Amino acid sequence: MGSKPHLRVLYIGSDSLLVERVTDELGCENAVVVKEPAAPDALDRLSEESFACVVCDDELADSDWESVRQSVAEHDAALPFLLLVSDGATDQVLDALDADRTEYVLLDAEPAPYAVTAQRIQRAAERYRTTVPRTGAGGTVHTLLAETTDTICVLDESGTIQYVSPSGDRLFECEPSTLTGKEVGAITHPDDVDRIHDVFETVLAKPERTVTVQFRIECNDGSWCWVECRARNQLSNPAVNGVVVTLTDISQHKQRERELRRFREVVEQAGHAIYITDPDGLIEYVNPAFEESTGYSYEEAVGENPNILNSGEHSSEYYASLWNTILSGSTWKGEVINERKNGHQYVVEQTIAPVETADGEIDRFVAINTDITQRKAYEQKLEQYEHIIENLPVGVFRTTPGDDGEFVEVNSELVSIYDAYSKSELLQRNVSEFYADADERAAFSQSLREEGTITGLEVEQETLAGETIQVSLTAMKVEEDGEVYFDGILQDITDRKRRERELERKNEQLEQFASIVTHDLRNPLNAAQSRLELVERSCEDEELHENMAVIDEQLVRMEELIEDVLAIARHGQQVEDTERVDLARLVESCWQTVETDAAEIVVDTDLTLDVDTGRAQQLFENLFRNAIEHGGRDVTVRVGTLADGFYVEDDGPGIDPEDRDEVFDHGYTTHSSGTGFGLNIVKEIVDAHGWSISVTEGTSGGARFEISGIGNEHE
């Protein structure tokens, strides 16, 4: 539908500028000023069309204004008539106009004649609309039909239009008379024609009823307009002799219905929880997303206050501020911790907006809730991760991937490692500035771009203070939002490398010591043993033989001391390559290498474990010798399984509880023939494997050594 003119003015005259300027001054989109220069043509048009006011020039080419005014009064005595008086009007003429109560405007005397003319037209038209003339019945009916908002039609019994009221020009946007003679179906939307014919048949069959129906009619511009039709059969009324149809334009109402329907569909399908309350806060509507997110059904929520979602996490002042905001007509936005029907809390991003009437009064509130529980949880975890990264004892970085590279993100430890004053200082530096050898940075960058990851790369770098440091780099190439970065960690290993060099130096010294022991001690010892054997074979003195036996024992003890010292010096905390072995077989093999005499071994284990076989053999041999030395030649040794390891126990005299903390110390022994190194070697072998050892009382009262932590073997 186009615009509907509701202020139609008939101007009898030839001033086109006046028509344009007065139309503008009327300031109404639907105002129309119709110009007719010839009086006869203007009066003919007045008889066919409806107008709210007639404006006439005081000088006409083919008539005089008095005759025109008389004809207008005969047509409709109440229709306003406004005379435009040009320059040259005498006082006598003006006095006559005043006496005759003719409305006029002195064009040349007014500073704004067009504005004054428009004001006079508006006042006259308004007076005409609200005043029913008491004379001229025909004119009164015409005026009423022209000014009514409805359109009245009369149809004959075939459905042909016989009459359309003057107000029809606003509905159909054409002269009402052009519709007469048309069948109503010809101006009805094709989808509505059958329904209209059925309704018309009902009206004809039941003259006592007023039938109401809504359908679409065609306007002059080809558009379709929704109307509500109320039809009543007046064929038997001689004054009418037809079906009277009253048409009300409901296009705006239908448009509003469509908008509301679309709005409801959008709200119903929205993923956000939406609810509407009255001005007092009582819920009038909730959408399905509200039901799903809160657990409350539509029936349970409507009529309740939104405080059914109150979690108790916010203060009364918090909600008071919310209400003050929306009651003032402003929109409130914020995060709220709500509680579902099942008692579980969730976080929403809430927007509450007031809806006002045309008078500015708050009619209702609309609340939209976006569930951000997962987002808040993610943000919380992200904060935790950032806190962890910030407090890691290693440097963490993100850089651009170039050979020079720029720092994008760093943690505090990296700032400390590079002797920078702050993160901002470090972020202004190129990565290559810290490399002692620029080629190493280029190689690192190229390798990371090609392979994607680098682990434990050791390079030499320089701090901002000029200090040379050794660092270990582990990094990976990542892509984020289409950008490539290098993410990684950097560990200052300067102290570790210094300790490694010191350890290497000490190992060299130990190796030298071992060589001295091997050469300078063993050679004289071997010579002494050889000489002793010669004397034993040639000597027959029994007493001398006894003394030589004692010497032989001491030489053997010296040999054992040398072996133990060499074991400590050459192996220390080192574990060579490991292999998985059967513990029972290993124990049996070690038992065969020890002088056991009458001692017995009981093996009760099916454990397999990863060990350095040579070192493990030393462990068991030393434990077995210790059991025999302290438990006697007929001691029984048992090896069994623990929950996370194994034990070795004997049925000898055991170890005094007060001495158990010292048994693994260098040189500790309670036996005259002991070296004091055996259990210390056992402890070092256990530690080298990453296990633990403790001593307690055995099941038979002897010593029990428990080796645990096998699940955490040294790798």
Give short descriptive properties of this protein:
alpha+beta, Beta-Lactamase, Rossmann fold, elongated, 6 domains, 25% strand, 715 residues, five-stranded antiparallel β-sheet, disordered N terminus, five-stranded parallel β-sheet, 21 helices
User: Strands of the largest sheet, in order across it?
Assistant: 2-1-3-4-5
CATH C-level label of the largest domain: Alpha Beta
- What is the percentage of strand-forming residues? 25-35%
Could you state the CATH homologous superfamily of the largest domain?
Histidine kinase-like ATPase, C-terminal domain
Distance between the termini: 86 Å
Can you tell me the CATH topology of the largest domain? Heat Shock Protein 90
Q: What is the total tally of β strands? A: 27
The structural class is alpha+beta
Our count of helices gives 21
- Kindly report the average pLDDT value: 82
Largest sheet: 5 strands, parallel
Enzyme class: transferase
Protein name: histidine kinase
Organism: Halorientalis brevis
EC number: 2.7.13.3
Explain this structure:
- It is a single chain.
- By secondary structure, the chain is α+β, with helices and mostly antiparallel strands.
- It folds into 6 domains: 7-141, Response regulator (Rossmann fold, 3-Layer(aba) Sandwich), CATH 3.40.50.2300; 149-255, PAS domain (Beta-Lactamase), CATH 3.30.450.20; 270-377, Beta-Lactamase (2-Layer Sandwich), CATH 3.30.450; 391-492, Beta-Lactamase; 497-555; 572-712, Heat Shock Protein 90.
- Helices cover 40% and strands 25% of the residues.
- It has 21 helices and 27 strands.
- The strands form 6 sheets. A 5-stranded parallel sheet has the order 2-1-3-4-5, sandwiched between helices. It has a 5-stranded antiparallel sheet with strand order 7-6-10-9-8, with helices on both faces. It has a 5-stranded antiparallel sheet with strand order 12-11-15-14-13, with helices on both faces.
- Strand 18 (453-462) and strand 19 (468-480) form a beta hairpin.
- Helix 17 runs antiparallel to helix 18 (542-571).
- The longest helix is centred in the C-terminal third of the chain and has 45 residues, at 494-538.
- The protein is elongated and about 180 Å long.
- 25% of the residues are buried.
- Residues 1-5 and 132-141 have low confidence and may be disordered.
- Keywords: Coiled coil, Kinase, Phosphoprotein, Transferase, Two-component regulatory system.
- Residues 516-708 form the Histidine kinase domain.
